[in-house]
Amino acid sequence: MRAALVTRPIDPATLVAEVADHSCGAVSIFLGTVRNAHAGKAVTGMEYKAYEPMAVRELEAILLRARERFAVEHIVVEHRLGRLELGEVSVAIVAAHPHRREAMDATRFTIEEIKKTVPIWKLEHYADGSREWVDPTRGAPPVQPPANVAEVVG
Q1: CATH number belonging to domain 2-134
Q2: 66-81 residue pLDDT tens
Q3: CB of 80 within 8 A of CB of 4?
Q4: Backbone phi, then psi, for 41, in 5-degree steps?
Q5: Is the dihedral of CA 147, 80, 53, 71 positive or negative?
Q6: 122-141, pLDDT tens digit by residue?
Q7: What residues does each domain of the chain span?
Q8: Assessment of whether the complete model's pTM goes beyond 0.70
Q9: CA dihedral of residues 19, 9, 92, 76 (deg, nearest 10)
Q10: Which of these, 76, 60, 99, 82, lies nearest to 11 by C-alpha position?
């Protein structure tokens, strides 16, 4: 079990190898990628920022809850920080379990909890040159990260 914030590209194959275990007959992968549109606006890329100590603690707590809830011992999550281009992986969750239902449920649970509780913010860059902070809970108006969040992008 591992949770990490990274500034390098995420390699799903490496994460699959990390959770591989001969006792497991199922591996579930969730990849969140940068898409080219949001709320009717053309997106050209985005930046992710986080309150890193709290974000890592919360990611680890989510994985502990997933382990307890779905009896999944082999699970890893990486969330990217910094500038990302279209199509790049922003978050990857990989879970291995003896059975597919639990592996799939663990990845779904993990991404839903990340969206609700982890202090990670995204700044979308639009084709018209504008930029906007997007609330990760999706239903609320745009937000900016707190002023004390360390800059993770140049």
Answers
A1: 3.90.1170.40
A2: 999 999 999 999 999 9
A3: no
A4: -110, 140
A5: positive
A6: 999 999 999 999 876 554 44
A7: 2-134
A8: yes
A9: 30
A10: 76
